[in-house]
Design a protein that fits this description.
alpha/beta; five-stranded mixed sheet; hydrolase; EC 3.5.4.33; binds zinc ion
């Protein structure tokens, strides 16, 4: 029997920071699921510190704008005491919608990392120039786990 030795794996010594932060966003998505909200979670990170968290609250707040990203942006801006999130990264489990991508433009956020694509309302399906020109994007981080939460949520709704 072959036993895999992780200590010999050079990649094991380099933890994937994006995956670690996405795990935090996934925890928030699971909290949303537990509260019967669409399971999307988001965090904002600056200098290795989580400065804003959010998850979808549209049902609880009766507010169509209460998306995870909007909560996280507001929390991060409150933390920083300023509206711009220039040296920050947004981690969100699902591709932002047009509204949240538009809000991210106004924050001038440096980077957006998302899990799974949103084929219906994801900003990139509508227009890929909604983001701020200085915002870089990474997609597909923990994609399957992010997508699975959404799939199981909507399966239970039918
Ligand atoms: Zn949104």
């Amino acid at each position: 029997m072959k036993i895999y030795n992780f200590e010999d794996d050079p990649l094991a010594a380099v933890p994937n920071i994006d995956e670690q932060y996405m795990q935090e966003a996934l925890k928030l998505a699971k909290r949303a699921l537990a509260e019967d909200e669409i399971p999307i979670g988001a965090i904002v990170v600056a200098n290795g510190k989580i400065i804003g968290k959010g998850y979808n609250l549209t049902e609880k707040l009766n507010d169509v704008t209460a998306h995870a990203e909007m909560q996280a942006f507001t929390a991060a801006a409150n933390f920083l005491g300023g509206k711009y999130l220039k040296d920050c990264t947004l981690y969100v489990t699902i591709e932002p919608c047009v509204m949240c991508a538009g809000a991210s433009y106004w924050t001038q956020i440096s980077k957006i990392v998302y899990g799974a694509k949103e084929p219906k309302r994801g900003y990139s399906t509508i227009h890929d120039k909604i983001l701020h020109p200085k915002t870089t994007v990474i997609s597909g981080v923990l994609e399957e786990q992010c997508k699975e939460l959404m799939t199981s949520f909507f399966k239970n709704k039918r």
